[in-house]
Amino acid sequence: MRTAREFNFDGLVGPSHNYAGLSFGNVASFSNVRSASNPRQAALQGLAKMRALAARGFAQAVMPPQARPNFRLLRRIGFSGTDADVLARAWREAPVILACAYSAAPMWTANAATVSPSSDTQDGRVHFTAANLNNKLHRSEEHVQATRTLRAIFKDSNRFVVHDALPPVPAFGDEGAANHTRLASAHGAAGVEFFVYGRVEFDPSAPCPKKYPARQTLEASQAVARLHGLDPARTVFAAQNPDVIDQGVFHNDVIAVGNGNVLFYHEQAFFDEAATLGALRSALGNADTDLVPVRVDTRQVPVGDAVASYLFNSQLLTKPDGRMALVVPHECRENEAVSRYLAGLVEGGGPIDELIEFDLRQSMRNGGGPACLRLRVALTDDEARDMHQGVIMTETLYAQLVAWVEKYYRDRVEPKDLADPQLAIECAASLEELERILGLPGLYDLS
Ligand SMILES: NCCC[C@H](NC(=O)CCC(=O)O)C(=O)O
């Protein structure tokens, strides 16, 4: 077995972060619609998490934001003239679409792509498939820049391959790593890739939610597994419980998280818990390890509390001593049932013996917790050396990015501010400088 480390690529929150209520099925997004956001604070909260985890010795990198507003989208649907004309008319005639074009949702990099480390793939390269995110207009074009960004960071084609997003149709709804977990004895060992889907396009009898959309299909998960050359003996597909989707669990990472051979999950997470665990156990047998389930039952934490606190949208990180830390948002402490549960968890003698807590309120108010904000990429030392180094979080980069945020970001954005052409100018100027800071000239198509 080769040694590998898990890099967490956190999304740097972009300067247009706002609350537009664009995600039907995501309770937080809907409840905070049209409230004022603070992009500066949002970005600083995310950077503080990256810095703290890097300082603890975890491998940490940053994924740059995307260019906003998305003029390509606005022009394609008939808004024309100068940029200012486009914005003014979109604001008058289609303010919600303007908000889509301004969305800073690429901050949630768990949705940027699905990643398979080289120890799982047939050709021994690290595979990425950008997620098409086609369930929501405001996210449906993220894959264009996500592909470009991943190809800029993971350029060496002997080691890395970045696949284009799947066809952007409902049959292939793909939400990336938010519905994908990898279980293995160690980051560098052959592992089990675990895909959780919300619906099956071509099987009307398969479970599916009634109220809210299921964003991920089985067909999409299978396509990604094929593209990545995964071993079927170490790949598991499981249906999410449609009832929890209807309670606001729009991605599986709102109700389960895995790391190493530990699966931390709510008893209601899966359509068939016993069958899912059975499939994982036998696949893990093919990867020479045992499953360690950490199961939370409804009496301890009702699904509503899990959704409100984002208990499972936590990062589960292996520490140098082999024990695990759970990275949770402040909301977990504020929720009585969850904080009681967590106190027992770390005292309980199980694999998780530490909590690391962050204030991520700006992102949380749009339904994005610690796990949504990061894309996991397990890399061998050679692979880590061959990726672009300018995105690795260091004290120096942290200081540069904080200064950059303070220079360009507003501390308040309300819906009406999206009509201000100056905001678009500020966003573009900030990205020009960011390309220089990260050493990625040409990262954006700013023409
Ligand atoms: N993984 C967390 C994703 C959260 C994201 N929220 C949003 O897009 C809300 C945007 C808004 O409502 O302004 C989503 O639902 O896909």
TrEMBL record:
Active site: E175, H251, C372
EC annotation from Swiss-Prot or TrEMBL: 3.5.3.23
Subunit annotation: Homodimer.
Function according to Swiss-Prot or TrEMBL: Catalyzes the hydrolysis of N(2)-succinylarginine into N(2)-succinylornithine, ammonia and CO(2).
SUPFAM superfamilies the UniProt entry points to: Pentein
GO-annotated molecular function: N-succinylarginine dihydrolase activity
Entry-linked InterPro entries: AstB_sf, SuccinylArg_d-Hdrlase_AstB
Keyword set includes Hydrolase: yes
Keyword Hydrolase recorded: yes
Organism (species): Massilia consociata
Catalysed reaction equations from the record: N(2)-succinyl-L-arginine + 2 H2O + 2 H(+) = N(2)-succinyl-L-ornithine + 2 NH4(+) + CO2
Keyword line: Arginine metabolism, Hydrolase
Recorded superkingdom: Bacteria
Residue numbers binding substrate: 20-29, 111, 138-139, 215, 253, 366
Name of this protein: N-succinylarginine dihydrolase
Pathway per the UniProt entry: Amino-acid degradation; L-arginine degradation via AST pathway; L-glutamate and succinate from L-arginine: step 2/5
Family classification: Belongs to the succinylarginine dihydrolase family.
Coiled-coil region(s): none
